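Q: I'm building a small set of examples for a reading group on sequence design. Run inverse folding on the following structure and report the sequence directly after it, with nothing in between.
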């Protein structure tokens, strides 16, 4: 079969069944991902790699950026926060924009925005310009994943969505592993500017392949944007994430810059829910939550992401703060997690296409819970071999959990609902990751501060200043390292608890059998299936 896309395949969903060529296969080849789908997957993965790696690549350069621009840590953190805010703001637009302008066009536009923001960030002359260009990056990066997921699921059809989700999931799980390694190498060997310039050749390749391989867009099908929904949802998400970011930076709720955005953001989101349930074409179709499997998948994913994204942020800090490792060495020590994910994800994708995700996801969550249980016993001299085994198991668990959960959320939806569902899933992931990161950081800070107060008196604070620590006697430094390690261990109990709740939700609510394929209704409304 030629890899050249057929204009009739995978067009926009105004056609009764644009995925017919993919869905019509029968016999032993029905489950295989043909060359056309694999070619499309290669394009989508390139975009996903750029978007996901960028977050972790930049994180290891923050100390260097703080020194070069001579600003406080609370200011330099906006390099990451501004990117996340842009993601949360633009993701709600992707479903409408994909239908209005076509997924191929939108995907190529996203690459251009992301690469332009990357190059400009590499030439930034002060901290303000860098933050602004990071926001531009986020506007492009926020659309890459949901649009890419929509393109992939439409191309493969409902029977093969598990395998294509596994393909897309590889960079999602490898990003936190490869990013610190790549970022540490670029910063140490070249300059922090190269963590942005590296996106230029990758983006050019992705744009060229998208133009050649992705199926041609059909006619636009939606001419009206839900402006009120956009005015409520995007600022609401941005303010909510901003409030949690400030909550983490200021270590508490007793500040106006924390309370005000949280309250206003929550009010705007409540307003969006009220509006979306009463308008025929909302920006995000909340009627998808009438599907019990979709709702259960969202709940499982939120709880898991709170734990994994929040909890796994702590390990690099532990390795650098307690064990004194460099950023590059930290990335290498975290590599077993990515290896576990790589080995398992193809298997999990095939299983998700053959059986109910309720048989797969709880198994993965149980492995993740076991890994976090081990991390609750972290000490200042924990064996790196044992830590590597725990991280490998964590990767295996995530491989059996993340993409099958995405698959379960999409399997019982009509094809016309996939774009909206993909957008909802990506919004949930971004918001959950941001809240989990802030929450775990605050918990760690509170526990560490209390332990320091108990050990050294009420006036003591939890310090990680290398110069101050280096001047202390060896026995005091050993005591501080022990306190810090125990604080990390206690914080991981919270991650363990979130995963346990997620396990119960998945075990009880996710389907144990694969649902039957769902076709759009005759009216073309794409209403979700009601699962009984």
């Amino acid at each position: 079969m030629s890899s050249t896309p057929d204009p009739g395949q995978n067009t926009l969903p105004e056609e009764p069944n644009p995925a017919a060529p993919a869905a019509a296969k029968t016999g032993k080849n029905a489950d295989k991902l043909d060359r056309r789908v694999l070619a499309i997957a290669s394009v989508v993965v390139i975009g996903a790699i750029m978007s996901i790696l960028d977050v972790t690549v930049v994180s290891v350069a923050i100390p260097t950026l703080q020194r070069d621009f001579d600003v406080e840590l609370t200011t330099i953190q906006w390099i990451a926060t501004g990117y996340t805010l842009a993601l949360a703001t633009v993701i709600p637009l992707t479903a409408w924009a994909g239908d209005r302008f076509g997924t191929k066009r939108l995907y190529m536009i996203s690459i251009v925005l992301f690469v332009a923001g990357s190059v400009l960030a590499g030439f930034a002359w002060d901290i303000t310009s860098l933050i602004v260009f990071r926001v531009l990056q986020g506007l492009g990066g926020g659309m890459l994943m949901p649009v890419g997921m929509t393109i992939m699921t439409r191309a493969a059809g409902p029977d093969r969505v598990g395998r294509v989700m596994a393909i897309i999931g590889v960079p999602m799980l490898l990003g936190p592993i490869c990013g610190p390694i790549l970022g540490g190498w670029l910063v140490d060997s070249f300059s922090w500017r190269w963590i942005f310039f590296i996106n230029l050749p990758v983006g050019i390749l992705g744009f060229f392949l998208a133009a050649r391989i992705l199926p041609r867009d059909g006619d636009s099908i939606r001419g009206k944007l839900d402006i009120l929904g956009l005015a409520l949802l995007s600022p609401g998400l941005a303010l909510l994430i901003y409030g949690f970011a400030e909550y983490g930076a200021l270590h508490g709720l007793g500040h106006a810059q924390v309370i005000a955005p949280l309250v206003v953001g929550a009010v705007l989101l409540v307003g969006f829910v009220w509006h979306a349930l009463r308008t025929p074409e909302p920006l995000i179709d909340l009627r998808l939550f009438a599907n019990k499997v979709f709702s259960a998948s969202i709940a499982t994913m939120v709880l898991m992401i709170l734990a994994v994204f929040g909890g796994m942020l702590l390990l690099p800090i532990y390795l650098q703060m307690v064990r004194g490792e460099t950023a590059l060495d930290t990335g290498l020590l975290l590599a077993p997690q990515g290896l576990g994910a790589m080995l398992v994800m193809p298997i999990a994708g095939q299983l998700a296409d053959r059986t109910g995700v309720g048989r797969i996801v709880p198994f993965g969550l149980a492995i993740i819970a076991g890994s976090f249980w081990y991390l609750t016993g972290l000490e200042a001299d924990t064996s790196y071999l044992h830590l590597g085994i725990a991280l490998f198991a964590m990767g295996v668990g995530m491989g059996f959990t993340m993409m099958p959960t995405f698959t379960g959320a999409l399997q019982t939806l009509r094809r016309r609902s996939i774009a909206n569902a993909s957008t909802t899933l990506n919004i949930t992931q971004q918001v959950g990751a941001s809240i989990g990161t802030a929450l775990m950081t605050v918990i760690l800070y509170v526990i560490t501060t209390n332990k320091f107060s108990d050990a050294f008196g009420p006036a003591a604070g939890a310090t990680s200043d290398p110069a101050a620590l280096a001047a202390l006697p060896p026995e005091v430094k050993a005591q501080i390292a022990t306190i810090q390690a125990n604080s990390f261990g206690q914080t991981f109990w919270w991650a363990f608890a979130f995963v346990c709740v997620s396990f119960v939700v998945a075990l009880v609510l996710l389907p144990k059998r694969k649902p039957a394929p769902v076709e759009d209704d005759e009216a073309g409304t794409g209403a979700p299936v009601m699962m009984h």
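The CA atoms of residues 148 and 458 lie 52 Å apart.
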